[in-house]
């Protein structure tokens, strides 16, 4: 994961992560996706808990809780796909060199407590977009049957992005980046 990008620019490390993943096979990429989805669920849950401590429009914590639940469902779908494709094996996330900065919890806390929900939502949209790019990479490596299974597991990906975009528009009156 990266740090919240100023002005919504996609950081250089995103392309580096995708380049690293392009060297891996479907099993390793899917293992990476599962691990990242669980991290994203954890992030959404933390945001849900933190947003309850600040005075925000109540749609915000409800959305974070919904996104948390969606991420858990997605992770479960990806685990089921993994088991279908690689019976008897367990997902073991590869070590992917992510040269970009890690998300800083104190920065996230500052954004939450400063009420900067727009910037948080923009960042979350970027995470969903990155996940979509990784899934597209994986899709190119799979058989037709596996692509269908991935498509089923991936259905919530676009839902999360659209829910974030919709809330951003409602709260700011602007289009997200």
Task: Characterise this structure.
- There is one protein chain.
- It contains six helices and no strands.
- The chain has a single domain (6-172), classed as Ferritin.
- It is mostly helical and 177 residues long.
- It starts with 11 loop residues before the first helix and ends in a 5-residue tail after the last helix.
- The protein has helices at residues 12-22, 26-51, 59-85, 105-113, 117-139, 144-172.
- The longest helix is centred in the last third of the chain and has 29 residues, at 144-172.
Essential attributes:
disordered N terminus; 6 helices; 177 residues; 71% helix; 0% strand; Ferritin
Compute the average pLDDT.
79
- In whole angstroms, the N-to-C terminal distance is 18 Å
Helix amount: over 70%
CATH class label: Mainly Alpha
Q: Treating each run of at least 4 consecutive H or I residues as one helix, how many helices?
A: 6
Structural class: mainly alpha
Instruction: Tell how many strands the DSSP assignment holds.
Output: 0
User: Number of folding domains?
Assistant: 1
Rg result: 16 Å
Uncertain runs: 1-9
């Amino acid at each position: 994961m990266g740090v919240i990008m100023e002005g919504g620019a996609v950081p250089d490390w995103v392309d580096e992560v995708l380049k690293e993943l392009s060297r891996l096979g479907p099993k390793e990429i899917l293992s990476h996706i599962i691990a990242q989805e669980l991290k994203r669920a954890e992030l959404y849950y933390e945001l849900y808990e933190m947003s309850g401590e600040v005075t925000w429009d109540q749609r915000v914590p409800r959305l974070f809780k919904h996104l948390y639940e969606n991420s858990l469902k997605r992770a479960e779908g990806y685990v089921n796909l993994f088991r279908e494709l690689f019976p008897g094996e367990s997902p073991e996330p590869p070590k992917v060199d992510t040269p970009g900065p890690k998300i800083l919890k104190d920065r996230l806390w500052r954004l939450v407590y400063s009420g900067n929900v727009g910037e948080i939502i923009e960042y979350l949209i970027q995470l969903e977009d990155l996940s979509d790019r990784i899934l597209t990479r994986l899709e190119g490596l799979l058989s037709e049957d596996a692509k269908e299974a991935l498509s089923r597991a991936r259905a919530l990906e676009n839902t999360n992005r659209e829910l974030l975009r919709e809330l951003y528009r409602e709260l700011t009156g602007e289009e997200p980046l």
